[in-house]
Amino acid sequence: MPLTPDIIAQHGINAEEYEKIRGLLGRDPNLTELGVFSVMWSEHCSYKSSRLHLKNLPTAGPQVLQGPGENAGVIDVGDGWACVFKIESHNHPSYIEPFQGAATGVGGILRDVFTMGARPVAIMDSLRFGPCQPGQGTTADVAMRNHAIVEGVIGGIAHYGNCFGVANLGGETVFDAGYSANPLVNAFALGIARQDALFFGKASGVGNPVIYVGAKTGRDGIHGATMASEEFSDASAGKRPNVQVGDPFLEKLLLEACLEVMQTGAVAGIQDMGAAGLTSSSCEMGARAGTGIALDLDRVPQRETGMSAYEMLLSESQERMLLVAHKGREAEVFAVFRKWGLDAVTVGEVTADGLLRITHKGELVALIPNTALTDAAPKYDRPQKAPRRTLPLEPPPGARTAAEKRDWSADLRGLLGSPNIASKAWVYESYDTMVRTNTLAGPGGDAGVIRLKGTKRGLAMALDGNGRYCELDPRLGAQLAVAEAARKVACVGARPIAATNCLNFGNPEKPEVMWQLAQAITGIGEACRALGTPITGGNVSLYNETLGRGIQPTPVVGVVGTMDAPSGEVSPLPARFADQGRAIVLLSGAPVTDAATAWREFGASEYAAFQLHQLWGQPPALDLKREHALHTVLIEAHRQGWLDSAHQVSTGGIATCLVECSLAHTVERIPEAVFGLAVNLDSVAERELDDCLVLFGERASQVVVSCDPAHVERLQQAARTAGIDAFPIGVTTAEGFTLTRGGRPLVGDDLDFLADAWGAKP
Amino acid sequence: MKIGVVVFPGSNCDHDALHIAQLAAGKPAVPLWHENASLEGCQALIIPGGFSYGDYLRTGAIARFSPIMQSVRAFAEGGGPVLGICNGFQILCEAGLLEGALLRNAGTGFVCRPVYLRVDNNRTPFTHGFERGEVMRVPIAHGEGNFYADPEVLEELEEKHRVVFRYCTHGGAIEPEANPNGSLHNIAGICNDHGNVVGLMPHPERASEAALGSNEGFKVFESLCRTYATHA
Predict the structure, then answer these.
(1) Global ipTM
(2) Higher pLDDT, residue A581 or A240
(3) What is the pTM of this model?
(4) Given B13, B42, B86, B191, the catalytic residue
(5) Domains in chain B: ranges and CATH
């Protein structure tokens, strides 16, 4: 069948790319080969719009054992242990079919981790949804649809993770109208392995057998990667069959079987079949090792009859892996998979010619150099253009007066009920947060922390992204995302040592979107360099647009940190107060500000969005050097045993942060351990700032800590030495919540009312 | 004491049970693969939590047919101590070693959070280290933990004091608001007639080390090892 321009266009291959394919093959591709190129050269698999920019990210460091380019990044966490981690998006499938889309997103990232030989021990997720309440431009229909997406996504994550048996340590859930038809589902998984027992996706050893293991191949998910590389239209519901269906039970068996077979020594290389399934795993493994792979599709376990080569190569059926065994040791591999009741079949062998050679029913159906599909994929320096600023820089008329002399107690209660601030117990209580009994700090705090059994070490992880900040300034917004994720890790007392990123943007063929993407990558690079957290891998999700409307640029950053306790047990700092009568101190690396700047920054706050329904201005200023100093002070103060608690100031400003410190005990259902406070805000803000800016402004590099009053002076000394501020601002109390300024009471409330407003169930 | 932990495909709390059994017994516990009938001389058994066989039919419904369950039944009938946690409790009910059934949680899906439990029977091998009426904070993590039994069975359970654990407030009161899943009579765990087979939905093994936020559940395993030490 000749390939008409129509067929080529349907595969998302443009004329120039088609010519390139012809050049690489020295002939026209057949339909099967075109299908293979179309998925491997899709934005999702090839990173063709972002590769050029991603190479500027810092990826090296003494702690990095494996940077970008493998299935996941690997860092050295001491005592011979390696931490394997990565974040990945499943945005498009989660919009089309929320439950399965989110579930298979979790499944995919877990496979990326255990294919490296690591047992997944923790996951987190970063979620973005449209509002579930009508109003402010969201119609009742859209709100209802959003609600269904929320339920489906959270249900899917819970279903997959709980059954598989990996602890979910939280993450973030954010609502904004910009995500109404483009929800974001980013899953961050972390596993641990011995450093000398890591596995890589390399098809090494000519003559070695290529073994297919796991679920049978069906027609599901064909062209999923291509779908994830285009905008949605009204007809997108018809793409539902493009979404894969997940089976966490099968994945659990696959995990145990893979880890067991890796111990036999019979495995030369292994990779999961993710996007573009059989195709991507074989050509990537071949390309990394500089080898070829010959596959006989007739041997592939199939769960449907009459599948064509095209369908088998492009299927994205879940829970499958491709494994290269050492020749002669196949029997050991088969025995393990038989024990776990899984298919394991030799489907081909490693060859010397560097070619992907596919036969089906005795015929050669595809013959493509492996590197043509990977390294030679197009790489675009797409045009960029700073968008014309449509949002005001200065507060719109009325915003200032609207935020003056209000009932701050009522405003605080209102803000606590904002979907972006309210307790997320309704989300994370549907996840198993403790399985494997490693969870030292679960959801509801700043960072999740797990212990490494048998060592005196712990690993912390945290996620952050802020689309509103990035909308106003993608470079600074991205820096702030890195800073906040790292700050959360430092808040539990761990040292941030590496990062992973998930870049969620609109259509990169629009120069304005491309500019946002490039700016954000620049910002991430700057912040990661300053904070000592190289990027070890990640994911890019573009074309998050429906009917031409894109999302806010939303880079999401995951940071991993380590902590140890040479004498005794690892004990992460909680966010909650420990007792009454303890000193409350604000540690701050925030730049000094003036009223005009503070008002501009206020436009990016949750208060402006939720109470004033406005967005203006610029993200909070960030001094990366002082941010880093803040982390050092936190880590050192915790090591010295000075601190009871630490919680960073973020969405909703210091007032919200303090409420969260008071109520954080509700996470553990210890009602008798909820403490109030009396705080004077005089020292924390420049005198000319309006009350609303002081209470609800979101300044960067700030952390509220509590401690024995006897340690305050030492803490101040340490802060001074490091070049940051430490303001003693109050004391914890048995009950009541009072904030004053200049002798005036700003907020006076009862903890029960605040808990109600926040949605906590003590 | 040699403790065995039964491992089904889909068990995912098996490592946790092995870990805590080793801490309590002071020597390694033994994983027992579902396809083998041998209990390898174990003196107590734990059926751990998870999603045995994916729970695709009914939680625990397929697991009861596996070869090892024949041996577990014989062991239990001979008076050997057997503890079923979460999915393990469901399996014991499906296998007929315990009565009642665990239905879908009322009014909620899967829920994972700490709850308070009151020990109402301290004459089982797993609870005799507790005072009767003692309250402990232990997490739950299940979607189908809503205990149900026919009225006659329920009456018998109550009459013979075979309700071992009940969901309670942190003050120890048996109130509807302390019930996380709709279980009849706030029942979180029961035992058989002889008291040697105990099943509960909450996870004491997750609340057995201070570092994890609570070690109040460790008494379950300590009780077992102490029983053995006194009888041996």
Answers:
(1) 0.97
(2) A581
(3) 0.96
(4) B86
(5) 3-231 (3.40.50.880)
